[in-house]
Design brief:
This protein has six helices and no strands. It has about 110 residues and is mostly helical. Helix 2 (about 40-45) crosses helix 3 and helix 4 packs across helix 5 (about 80-95).
């Protein structure tokens, strides 16, 4: 690992955490717009309710494996890309939850004693 003198590893661009995590729904929304396809048309193609798809696109609901595979089949967006985005989003959201991070700290303190 190359380190720069006087530069905190947290301040190197590759180590920065984005201010706002990217939910996979944003990618789906952008692709729909670029292809001039409506949310309702995609929902119909993959056999889900328009409200379910809208919740994913708005970031209110996560993308699971089945949904990722259906979107891949309909739009040729790799399912693993959607799942990786979802996983990174979930991780960043958990790490930004102060209450949860305090809980983790407490668990680590207890585990250190064991």
């Amino acid at each position: 690992m190359i380190t720069l003198q006087g530069v905190s590893p947290d301040m190197i661009a590759n180590n920065l955490t984005p201010f706002q995590p990217t939910h996979p729904g944003e990618l789906i929304k952008d692709e729909l717009e670029a292809r001039h396809v409506s949310q309702s048309k995609l929902a119909e193609r993959i056999g889900v309710s328009p409200s379910l798809l809208n919740e994913i696109i708005k970031g209110k609901r996560g993308v699971n494996t089945e949904m990722a595979l259906m979107i891949e089949a309909a739009m040729d967006i790799p399912a693993d890309l959607l799942l990786n985005l979802q996983s990174a989003y979930n991780m960043q959201m958990a790490k930004s939850d102060i209450s949860f991070m305090k809980r983790l700290s407490s668990i680590r303190n207890i585990a250190a004693i064991l």
